[in-house]
Design brief:
2 copies of one chain form a homodimer. Helices cover 45% and strands 18% of the residues of chain A. A 4-stranded mixed β-sheet of chain A has the order 2-1-3-4. In chain A, strand 3, helix 5 and strand 4 form a beta-alpha-beta unit. The longest helix of chain A is centred in the first third of the chain and has 19 residues. Strand 5 of chain A pairs parallel with strand 4 of chain B.
Chain lengths: 157, 157
């Protein structure tokens, strides 16, 4: 942590993520921003756009991943770093894992967000439960006769 | 499980999700489809669009949520059910939690997908580790002078 605090680029990128969050809040949006960096260069900037799009997945980090991947023309963001103004929710953290993001930093914690309804700690708690104990039951339902979908796909090369 | 197998609508919706997956595979895409249902009506259908969009978040379930929320003009999908051809990844499962999806069903398991590189069990395993032991380090970095972002946002009403 001390090393990170002394790294000017880390702080520069984080300050930019926070500035994006603050500007989004000033414009009537939710106070979240994110910056995605590859090889020391910002390749995507995004803010939470849930309110204007009605899209509940329009979190800043998820949008930064989408923007970066589409700008770079690749589904892989290996080696990239995300600077997020707020603690990433499990959807965004999983998205980072899926596309190979190497590291992530956040400024405001879930504890900071809790009094304002801006924490996703409860979702983390749900995800940490065994599937059968989560509030959202996830159940297997395999219709009779179904078996070969993935093998069919793989056989197409 | 037996009750579910006897419920014709459950099977009908799941068969539609699988048909979407199969059609997407036939068109060169990945073999995943999802159907989002509210009050017994399909409000969104989606397939995995990663290959054509380069967007690593373009999973069928996430796109179904986006389509449904935008079609219904709401960020909340409380009471909705998702039928997914494959076991939802943690990004999609977290998205369901975030917007209030009530239940989810899947046909093909991560075990089915493992031989074909279509399992996300490894991402679940990462997410189950304490943050400091995950492959993707998630680190707090709060610049000096930062403290009031969320309170500023809340004070705007």
């Amino acid at each position: 942590m001390n090393d990170l605090r002394l790294a000017p680029r880390h702080l520069e990128f984080m300050r930019e993520a926070i500035a994006l969050a603050r500007a989004n809040a000033a414009a009537g949006g939710r106070p979240f921003g994110a910056v995605l960096v590859r090889d020391g260069q910002v390749v995507a900037r995004a803010v939470n756009r849930i309110l204007e799009t009605h899209d509940p997945t329009a979190h800043a980090e998820l949008l930064a991943i989408r923007v970066a991947a589409q700008a770079l023309g690749t589904t892989r963001l290996d080696g990239c770093t995300i600077y997020a103004s707020g603690h990433p929710c499990p959807m965004c953290l999983a998205a980072m894992h899926l596309c190979g993001v190497a590291a992530a930093y956040y400024a405001y914690s879930n504890e900071d967000g809790e009094p304002f309804g801006l924490s996703t700690a409860a979702v983390y708690a749900q995800m940490a439960l065994p599937p059968e104990r989560q509030r959202l039951p996830l159940t297997r339902l395999l219709p009779d006769g179904e078996a070969g979908l993935y093998a069919e796909w793989a056989s197409r090369g």
